[in-house]
Amino acid sequence: MDKSTFNEDDGGSDSDDISHSFICCVCRDLLYKPIVLCKACGHISCFWCVHHSMSGLCESRCPICRHPYIHFPTICQMLHFLLLKMYPVAYKRRENEILVHEKKATLGGIFERYTGFQGKRVSGVEERER
Fold this sequence. Notes:
Residues 24-66 form the RING-type domain. With 130 residues, this protein is of the alpha+beta class. The chain has one domain: Zinc/RING finger domain, C3HC4 (zinc finger) (Herpes Virus-1). The chain has 3 helices and 6 strands; from the N terminus they run E-E-H-E-E-H-H-E-E. The protein has helices at residues 47-53, 77-86, 88-115; strands spanning 34-36, 44-46, 60-61, 68-69, 120-122, 125-127. The strands form 3 sheets. The chain has a two-stranded antiparallel sheet. A two-stranded antiparallel sheet has the order 3-4. Strands 5-6 form a two-stranded antiparallel ribbon. Strand 3 (60-61) and strand 4 (68-69) form a beta hairpin. Helix 2 (77-86) packs across helix 3 (88-115). It starts with 33 loop residues before the first strand and ends with a strand. Residues 1-14 and 120-130 have low confidence and may be disordered.
């Protein structure tokens, strides 16, 4: 492999060394738990990027070509392990980012569910969103 796709010295930690082919079209970062959206277009994105953008009411569309799909895509295990092996530091960084994001989203949802508060704090005063 050439240096533009993998830097063995730093474990692939530098985002400049990540091949364009392994960049998510939604978050523009290293693919984390990559999925192939549909067989017709074959575009690849992060599992969580697609999960957050899918519609539960109607068919969803590929963010690149807008091709519709109605199934929930599964993680491409072969690509997942390849990326983990090629870019271990960057992949672990992405994993940590996703865990923090999901924890915040989960805790926020639990707080809203049990307190009924959906507003934001402004200068120490609670203000309900309209």
